[in-house]
Amino acid sequence: MSESTTTDPSTGESPAHDQGEPDGQKWLSGIVSLIGFWLAASPFVYETAQSILWNNLLVGGAIFLLAGYNYYRIVTDHPTSTGVMSLVALLALWTAISHFAIGGEVAMSGLEVADRGLTWSNTVLGLVAAALSAYVASTAGREVPRGTATETR
């Protein structure tokens, strides 16, 4: 099947221009990548236990790289990677609950006050990153009807 190179008379754009992902997905992937960067860096801002430090470094770094990879794919006119963004959603959910799963011993130590800020940061940003990346994964590859607000660029 050959692709037509005619232009739309009303807009003057070629049909191939409309084949990319919506700009919203690009920016949501970028935001999730920045959240991953913060999650990786936050143990150095808050005083915390070694287990949480390594968990945030590894998982936050993975979220940063994977969401950044998806951002790069969209910018270079490749489709969103549903698998990558689904993995990011799972990693972000782990970040939201990991403090309670592996950080329980911290509450008994002298790090309780400083650790509370990191707990809230992980929980809230983990849930936000999970929701955003799940949204990007669920809307990947869907056709956007012409004339809708999400189609505008």
TrEMBL record:
Keywords: Membrane, Transmembrane, Transmembrane helix. The keyword Ribonucleoprotein does not apply. Residues 1-13 have a biased composition (Polar residues). It comes from the Archaea. Coiled coil: none annotated. The chain crosses the membrane at residues 27-46, 52-72, 84-102, 117-137. InterPro entries: SPW. Residues 27-134 form the SPW repeat-containing integral membrane domain. It comes from Natrinema salaciae. Residues 1-22 are annotated as: Disordered. This is SPW repeat-containing protein.
